[in-house]
Specification:
heterodimer; A: 14 helices; 0% strand; B: mainly alpha; 76% helix; flat
Chain lengths: 277, 328
C-alpha cells in the first residue's frame, strides 16, 4: 500500500532520529576509553586514538580516589533489588485481598490508596526526611528503601490483574480444602508472574535512578547511591576529567541498560497498562 | 444483625434443642466469617503499614510542620499558625521572592516542555507505526533507551555535549564556521538545553503510550473513511485524534506533573543560572529546607506547589472534557 520511495524515506527519517538517541550514549562510552587530553580536546573524533582502560581502573580501584564507586554500585543494586522485592510482595498481597477476599471496608481502603496517586510527592518529601531524622534512620539502607514501598501504583496495577483473574481456579482449590494463603501462593501467584515482573522492573528502575530523595536522605560517602555519587563527583574531583567522568557514567548505566533491554517487554506492558484510563 | 440472632437464642430457649443447634451453627458460621475477614485483612496489613508510615503520616506531618516555625536543627519549634503561608504572599518577604521566582521558572519549563513532550511523542509514535512491522520494535527500543538512564547521567552527558569550549555541538558549529554558543550560561540557551535534554530523556515513555493508543483505534473506521475517499490528513484529524483523546489527556497531565517536579536537570546542568533564570521551585524549596534550615516555610511552599499542581491537572481535565462536549 505504501509506495517504495515513501517507505525508504520513512526508514531513513527513523534512522536519523535513532542516531540522535543513540549517538550521545555511544559517545559517552567511546570517551570513557580516551585519555584526558583527547577527551577534553573534544573535536569530532568519535573513536579514541589511544584506546585506554585507565579511566575504569582508576574509577573503580584508584588509590588516590577518596570515594568508593564499587560501594555505590552495590548500594544502588542492593537498594533497588530489596525495594522491588518488598514492593512486589506487599502490593501483590494487598491487591489480591482487595480484589478477591472478604476484607472489611475494602472499597474504602482501595479508594484511599488510589487517591494518593494524585497527591504530588513534593508534599511528603520534607516530612519524610524529618520522620527518618526522628527515627535516627537517615543515612541508612532503611531510608533508601522504605519510602518507595508506600507508592500505590503497584497495588493499582496488580488489582486490575487480579480482578480479571478467572475465579474457577480458586474455587476448585477451595473445594480441595486449600486455605487462602495456599491458594494465593500456589494458584494465583504463578499466573501473576509476568505482571509481577513488570512491577519489579519498574520499581527497580525507579529506585536505582532516583535522585533527589537519596541525595537528601544520605550524607556519608559510603551510603551514596551511584546516581547521587555521580552528581557529587561531577561537581567535585572529576570536574575536569571527562574521561573519568564518562567511565563513571558508563559504569552507572551498564547494569540498568542490560536490565532494561532484557525487561523491555514487561516495561512496555506496565506503561501501557498505566496509561489505560 | 448477627447479634440479634444471639439474643434470639436467649429468648427462644423453649423452642427445643433443634433450634439451639441451628443457632449454634449460625454462631460458628458467624465466627468463621469473622475469622475469614481477619485472615483476609492480614493480606492487606503489610502494605497498610508502609502506606501509613511513609505516606499518610508524612502527609499529616507536612501540614503540621507548615504551621510551625520549624528549624531543621533547633529544638524550639513554636506554632505560628498561617505565618509561613502569609510570608509567601507578602511582597516584602524574601520567601516571597524565592517562591515566585521559582514558580515562574517552573511554569516556563512546563510551558516549553509539555507541548514538545506531547507532540514529539505522538510524532514518534506515528513514525514508528508507519514503519514496516519487522523493524518497528527495533526503532521503538532506540527511542525508548534514554528513559532507562538516571537524570545525573543524562545531565552530565548533555552538559558535556553543550559545553561552550570543548562540547560536541559547538565543535560541530565551529567546523561549519559558526561562533560557539554559550548554551548553558546564557538565555535562551539554558532553557533550550534543559528542555532538549528532558525531551530526549523522557520522550520514549509518551511514545509507548501513544503507540498503544494508536493500535487500539479500530481498523474499520479507517477502512470506512477510505471508502469515503478521505486522505491521510483527514483520517488523522477526524479519526485518529478523536479516538486517542483520553490518552492524549493522560499524557498531557502526566507530562505536566513530571515537568512541575523538574529538579535534577537544572540543578546539575545550569545550577539554576544564568542569574536565577532556571532556579525552579523545587530547588527553592530544597534550599529553603536544607540551606536556610527553615522547614516550616519550605513545607508551606511545598503544599502550595502541590495545590497548584492539583489545580492545573483539574483544569486540564475540565478543558478536555469541555472540548469533547463541543465536538458532539
Amino acid at each position: 500500500m505504501i509506495s517504495r520511495s515513501k517507505k525508504i524515506f520513512l526508514i531513513s527519517l527513523a534512522s536519523v532520529i535513532a542516531l540522535l538517541f543513540i549517538l550521545p550514549l555511544a559517545w559517552m562510552v567511546a570517551t570513557s576509553f580516551k585519555n584526558d587530553f583527547e577527551a577534553i580536546a573534544g573535536g569530532l573524533n568519535f573513536l579514541p586514538k589511544d584506546f585506554i582502560i585507565d579511566n575504569y581502573v582508576y574509577t573503580l580501584l584508584g588509590d588516590g580516589l577518596s570515594v568508593p564507586v564499587l560501594k555505590w554500585m552495590f548500594n544502588s543494586i542492593f537498594v533497588g533489588v530489596s525495594g522491588a522485592l518488598i514492593i512486589v510482595f506487599i502490593d501483590a498481597l494487598a491487591a489480591y485481598a482487595l480484589a478477591r477476599l472478604d476484607v472489611p471496608f475494602k472499597k474504602t481502603l482501595f479508594a484511599m490508596f488510589v487517591s494518593t496517586l494524585m497527591i504530588p510527592w513534593v508534599i511528603t518529601f520534607l516530612p519524610l526526611y524529618m520522620e527518618f531524622s526522628h527515627l535516627g534512620l537517615l543515612d541508612t539502607y532503611a531510608a533508601l528503601i522504605l519510602p518507595y514501598s508506600a507508592n500505590a501504583f503497584g497495588v493499582f496495577l496488580l488489582f486490575q490483574f487480579f480482578k480479571g483473574f478467572p475465579k474457577e481456579l480458586e474455587e476448585a482449590a477451595y473445594l480441595d480444602g486449600a486455605n487462602k494463603w495456599q491458594i494465593f501462593t500456589k494458584v494465583v501467584l504463578p499466573s501473576a508472574r509476568p505482571i509481577m515482573w513488570t512491577l519489579a522492573i519498574f520499581s527497580f528502575m525507579t529506585i536505582y535512578n532516583d535522585f533527589l530523595w537519596p541525595l537528601v536522605a544520605t550524607s556519608s560517602p559510603e551510603m551514596r547511591t551511584i546516581t547521587t555519587g555521580i552528581a557529587i563527583m561531577q561537581q567535585g574531583s572529576f570536574v575536569s576529567s571527562y574521561g573519568k567522568l564518562m567511565a563513571l557514567t558508563t559504569i552507572a548505566t551498564v547494569p540498568i541498560l542490560i536490565l532494561f533491554l532484557i525487561g523491555q517487554k514487561h516495561l512496555i506492558k506496565g506503561i501501557t497498562q498505566s496509561g489505560i484510563k | 444483625m448477627k447479634f440479634n440472632q444471639q439474643s434470639e437464642q436467649n429468648t427462644e430457649e423453649v423452642n427445643g434443642k433443634k433450634e439451639l443447634n441451628a443457632s449454634a451453627e449460625k454462631k460458628t458460621k458467624w465466627s468463621r466469617k469473622r475469622k475469614s475477614q481477619l485472615t483476609s485483612s492480614l493480606f492487606v496489613l503489610p502494605y497498610l503499614v508502609m502506606f501509613t508510615a511513609f505516606l499518610l503520616i508524612p502527609l499529616i506531618y507536612g501540614v503540621y510542620i507548615s504551621f510551625h516555625k520549624y528549624g531543621l536543627l533547633s529544638k524550639d519549634r513554636p506554632f505560628v499558625g498561617l505565618d509561613n503561608y502569609k510570608k509567601i504572599f507578602d511582597p516584602n518577604s524574601y520567601v516571597n521572592e524565592i517562591f515566585f521566582t521559582g514558580l515562574w521558572n517552573t511554569f516556563q519549563f512546563v510551558i516549553y516542555s509539555v507541548p514538545l513532550l506531547v507532540f514529539i511523542g505522538l510524532g514518534l509514535a506515528l513514525l514508528v507505526n508507519s514503519l514496516p512491522s519487522k523493524i518497528r520494535g527495533l526503532f521503538r527500543t532506540f527511542y525508548f533507551i534514554p528513559y532507562a538512564i538516571s537524570v545525573s547521567v543524562i545531565s552530565i552527558l548533555w552538559l558535556w555535549i553543550l559545553d561552550t569550549n570543548s562540547g560536541l555541538l559547538n565543535n560541530f558549529l565551529m567546523k561549519l564556521g559558526f561562533d560557539p554558543i554559550p548554551w548553558l550560561t546564557s538565555q535562551p540557551g539554558a532553557w533550550i538545553s534543559i528542555v532538549a535534554a528532558t525531551v530526549w530523556w523522557t520522550i520514549g515513555f509518551n511514545m509507548i503510550i501513544f503507540i498503544n493508543a494508536l493500535n487500539e483505534v479500530p481498523e474499520s473506521l479507517y477502512e470506512a473513511a477510505s471508502i469515503d475517499g478521505a486522505g491521510a490528513w483527514s483520517k488523522f484529524v477526524n479519526i485518529t485524534l478523536p479516538s486517542i483523546r483520553p490518552i492524549m489527556l493522560f499524557v498531557v497531565i502526566t507530562s505536566t506533573i513530571a515537568s512541575f517536579n523538574v529538579y535534577g536537570q537544572p540543578y546539575l546542568m545550569t545550577g539554576g543560572g544564568p542569574g536565577d533564570s532556571t532556579n525552579v521551585l523545587l530547588m527553592g524549596i530544597v534550599e529553603q529546607a536544607f540551606e536556610e534550615r527553615q522547614l516550616g516555610s519550605a513545607s508551606a511552599m511545598a503544599i502550595i506547589m502541590a495545590l497548584i499542581m492539583i489545580i492545573v491537572s483539574i483544569v486540564q481535565f475540565k478543558i478536555s472534557k469541555a472540548g469533547q462536549k463541543g465536538d458532539q
